[in-house]
Design brief:
This protein has about 350 residues and is an alpha+beta fold. The chain is about 60% helix and about 15% strand. The structure holds adenosine-5'-diphosphate (ADP). Adenosine-5'-diphosphate (ADP) binds next to helix 5 and helix 7.
């Protein structure tokens, strides 16, 4: 598909350049021919005057005859025109060859980002459908299995509905996150950037997440220094919501999560430290990749590996950086750094 488009674009480049070059050649040819014709006309007039003066005995020597080798005549003119036409043709053929090569290269360069975007989109669709297939298959198998039973008791029907609802909720989460992830590529997703107090953001996230943490008896400790950055409050709440949600998800009961905001003259740093399961060293480089789950069997029930890629996109849209330090079975620290406005 792209080869065909590349060739088409090359042909268009060729047509445009050759049309311009052809037009210039025609103008040059006409201009030079016009000047040569003018020269012959001038020469003939001068000869006529010479002849007149010679006839009136003003000059002792006669002017050269019209076909003398010193005089330019119509044949010379035609041969000059022919030579010019050949030169222009030669130049145009060279331009054609150069344009064909350069045009093919340029068409490739023009189509490259489009190709990359389409490849990225296709990968996204493949990954998403792959992720959807497993829970859908489980859902289907559960229902089909139950249907094969002759009698379904009330309690087992309820159990099935409950389990199906859980699967559906998780599928809904996946669909929401997929939509969000595709939107984060779009500039308009980030709304208006204004001066935002990180203390306010963190307090809001803290009170939202406290309920979740309470369910696992996890202590959420918040220590903040006032720091104002340029950003979008809604997106920042979403970002730290993801980090704290993960910290809660991957931490044992009765543990502690420390959230802190510190600042220097140029930067504000927000860290979220947990005492959870940690991340294996070999998995750390991939943690922000879409659909990456460090320990699939352990985290399958907890998420689809989209949270951190959304988080990273929000950080980058705020010109910040994010990194993680982690020790297996000891805990993880996610650090986000933003420039101070
Ligand atoms: P998920 O929805 O699976 O949590 P994320 O993109 O948020 O997706 O995280 C990707 C993977 O990184 C998770 O599956 C988990 O293995 C690992 N991870 C993220 N945060 C933590 C954390 N605080 N502690 C341990 N592992 C984590």
């Amino acid at each position: 598909m792209f080869r065909k488009a590349r060739l088409k674009l090359t042909v268009w480049y060729l047509l445009i350049i050759m049309a311009i070059s052809g037009l210039f050649s025609a103008v040059i040819y006409r201009g030079v021919a016009f000047q040569l014709e003018g020269l012959i006309r001038l020469q003939n007039e001068r000869m006529k005057k010479f002849q007149q003066r010679f006839n009136e005995n003003e000059l002792s020597l006669p002017p050269p005859p019209p076909n003398s080798p010193f005089m330019m005549n119509v044949e010379d003119l035609n041969s000059q025109k022919k030579q010019l036409a050949y030169t222009l043709l030669f130049v145009n053929l060279n331009i054609l060859a150069i344009t064909a090569a350069a045009g093919y290269f340029l068409a490739g360069q023009t189509l490259k980002p489009i190709k990359q975007m389409i490849d990225k989109q296709n990968r996204f669709i493949t990954d998403a459908s792959h992720e959807l297939r497993t829970p859908l298959a489980v859902l289907k198998a559960e229902m089909e299995g139950k249907l094969l039973e002759k009698h379904i008791s009330d309690s087992s029907a309820r159990k099935l509905i409950k389990s199906n609802l859980e699967d559906l909720n998780s599928l809904q989460d996946l669909a929401d996150n997929l939509l969000k992830l595709s939107k984060t590529d779009n500039f308009s997703y980030y709304g208006k950037m204004t001066a935002v107090s990180l203390t306010e953001v963190m307090k809001e996230v803290h009170s939202k997440m406290a309920v979740l943490a309470d369910q696992k008896k996890i202590k959420l400790k918040l220590k903040t220094k006032e720091a104002v950055i340029k950003g979008n409050k809604k997106n920042l709440i979403e970002l730290f919501g993801i980090l704290i949600d993960n910290a809660v998800k991957y931490s044992p009961e009765n543990s502690e999560i420390k959230i802190s905001v510190t600042k220097t003259v140029k930067e504000a740093e927000i860290s979220v430290a947990d005492q959870g399961i940690g991340i294996d060293k070999k998995d750390l480089p991939y943690i922000f990749d879409r659909f990456f789950r460090a320990d699939k069997s352990r985290s399958l029930a907890q998420g689809y590996g989209l949270g951190l890629s959304i988080a990273k996109k929000i950080v980058l849209a705020h010109k910040g950086s994010i990194r993680v330090e982690s020790k297996k079975n000891k805990g993880s620290i996610f650090r986000v750094i933003f420039p101070i406005s």
